[in-house]
Amino acid sequence: MPHPLNLPSAAPKFTPEHLFRETYGEVFSLLYRRYGAAHQQDIEDALQEAFYAALKVWPTKGLPEKPQAWLLRVTQNKLLNHLTRRAVHQTAVQQLEVEKDYFAPGDDETRDSQLQLLFACCHPQLSSSAQLIFSLKHLGGFGVEEIAQGLQQSKDAVYKSLQRSKKFFQHLSPDFIEIDILASPERLQNVLHVLYLLFNEGYDTTRGTSLLNQEICYEALRLTHLLDQRFAGKELPVRHLLSLLYFHLSRFETRVDGQGRFVPLARQDRAQWDRHLIRRGFHFLQDAFPAQVNPYYLQACIASLHAAAPSYPHTDWCAIKRLYDLLLQQKQNFVVALNRAIAVAECDGLEAGIALLLEMKEEASHYYLYHLALGDLYVRTQQTARAKACYQTALRLTSSPARQQIIQQKQEQLI
User: Fold this and answer.
1) What is the dihedral of CA 105, 109, 110, 115, to 10 degrees?
2) Helices assigned H by DSSP within 139-274
3) Predicted local confidence at residue 285, as pLDDT
4) Domain ranges (residues) in the chain
5) What is the pLDDT of residue 88?
6) pLDDT value at position 276?
7) Which of 37, 118, 387, 398 has the maximum number of C-beta atoms within 10 A of its C-beta?
8) Could you tell me which residues are beta bridge partners of residue 256?
9) Which one, of 337, 409, 404, lies nearest residue 370 by Cα?
10) Residue 3's pLDDT is what?
11) How far is CA 171 from CA 34, 130, 159, 165, 191, in A?
12) What sign does the CA torsion over 60, 63, 64, 69 have?
């Protein structure tokens, strides 16, 4: 089965479980929008039962011609059984009795329901973490255990976040999901931020390059494409985010070697970067030149310079430094400042980069990435003792086994 975005082999393989994940988001958003937040638990239970039925039927009888329609019909029947058995919500029961045989939403309604739910879950009163977890569960179809693994949180923390979000939405007006997407610029910024975070959670090298990581990335890409289609390609920050995602995805397979070890940008095999995805990145970047720059445009421009460079040393680092100057004016945070310092080191000299990082010491000393970057520059300037001290501090500041492994690799190279 081809990938819905017509992507090359880098896209994850489509197993019944993967297809269920994508179909889950479609069916959940349709039913959630139609019957309301009051029935969320019933919809979830019915979908779970439909999934088990699919796992029994699909492997033996083959995938149905229209998996979404199959899953929607089975879920509606099970939802009706749930509500009838409990003898509650008679209005919903009557509606289901009438609709279960003819409710067959088209592609437009399916896409629109997913976007309505995405905008609804990006409510400004919910934290970014809660928005992200709700999106992964109910639009991405990921289970609690998978989300906990992907976000490096406990299952209990993920479960409690989902329960809090469910109660929050149940106390809102029943029509809270009916947002005017095209006239909600502030909510759009929240949505873009969640899609950006969603992609980054899958792309984080310290969590590996498993099928789960890839699926999180492609789910973010799929939802961003839906958003772009809804705005008919006229909302430039959406196109800029698409460009950025494609550039990053082009390098996905080269960031870890055959032994599962992290491969830094300077040592990645650029011949293995996916040229098709890079062309897609340039398409969305060049097709959407903004009158006023935004953070996604600047980050996409930076990623494009890396994608176009024949090698790490021949990258236009001075242009990247200027872009980080602009980005820092819009997005004041540690990661942007750290990346700018690395660009300064490559453009103006290693000592200039070290000096800039030392200026950041007071505000950044509790970030392991800060000490890792400073240690790398000390290595390149033959300041081995200082590099060892930086790596030791970085090791102490992270509890992630994968991140510790990266640091230990660097320490071993100093011996």
Assistant:
1) -160
2) 144-151, 155-170, 185-203, 211-230, 236-249
3) 94
4) 1-200
5) 56
6) 96
7) 118
8) 262
9) 337
10) 42
11) 17, 16, 19, 10, 21
12) positive
Q: Name residues of the chain where pLDDT drops below 70.
A: 1-19, 86-106, 205-212
End-to-end Cα, the chain, rounded Å:
49
Residue type at 376 in one-letter notation: D
* Residue in the structure block whose two tokens are 């492997």: 59
Quick check: 376 and 410 in contact, CB under 8 A?
yes
The single residue listed with the structure tokens 């460009």 is 243
Number of C-beta neighbours around residue 1 at 10 A? 9
Helix H or strand E encompassing 320: helix 317-330
Do the Cβ atoms of 27 and 159 come closer than 8 Å?
Answer: no
Query: Which amino acid does the sequence have at 180?
Result: D
Contacts of 321 (CB under 8 A, 6+ apart): 340, 343, 344, 346, 347, 348
Phi/psi region, residue 141 (left: phi>0; alpha: psi -120 to 50; beta: rest), is: left
Q: Is 18 exposed, middle or buried (0-12, 13-18, 19+ CB in 10 A)?
A: middle
